[in-house]
Design goal:
With about 130 residues, this protein is of the alpha+beta class. The protein has two domains: about 70 residues, 3-Layer(aba) Sandwich (Rossmann fold); about 35 residues, no CATH class. Helices cover about 35% and strands about 10% of the residues. The strands form two sheets. Strands 1-4 form a two-stranded parallel ribbon. A hairpin with a 4-residue loop joins β2 and β3. It is extended, with a radius of gyration of 19 Å.
């Protein structure tokens, strides 16, 4: 999502990645570590894909400190980040404990390299 916000939405509103501060709400604290990885950093802009990761519990604590509820804030319209972007294919994967990314890559590679459509991937333990 950070890449979409900073690289797709940013140019639409005339902003470079280092001119956007992106906060994301995640379910667990592990995502905080993931967002700080070096491969999620744009060296040319000296900017991260995601600047801050916050959890639902942290949102609840902030709202409590402010004596506010979500209903106290105005609703805003969602922005279609991919509007008129036919050059960005929408993809998905079946998901798993690790997100199913390896299966997605295998299916995409079989299709692209060998023109084969795989319905399932059979995995074997190496050791």
């Amino acid at each position: 999502m950070g890449a979409l916000i900073k690289l797709v939405y940013g140019p639409k509103v005339g902003r470079a990645p280092d001119q956007i501060f992106h906060i994301t709400l995640m379910a667990c604290f592990d995502r905080k570590l993931e967002a700080s990885r070096k491969d999620f950093f744009y060296e040319e802009y000296k900017a991260k894909e995601v600047d801050v990761v916050i959890t639902a519990i942290e949102i609840e604590h902030i709202l409590d400190k402010l004596s506010k509820k979500l209903e106290d804030f105005p609703r805003v319209a969602l922005v279609d980040l991919l509007e008129s972007r036919s050059d960005i294919p929408l993809m998905s994967h079946p998901g798993s404990g690790s997100g199913g990314y390896a299966e997605f890559v295998m299916k995409a590679a079989a299709n692209k390299l060998f023109n084969r459509q795989l319905d399932t991937v059979q995995w074997k333990s190496g050791r």
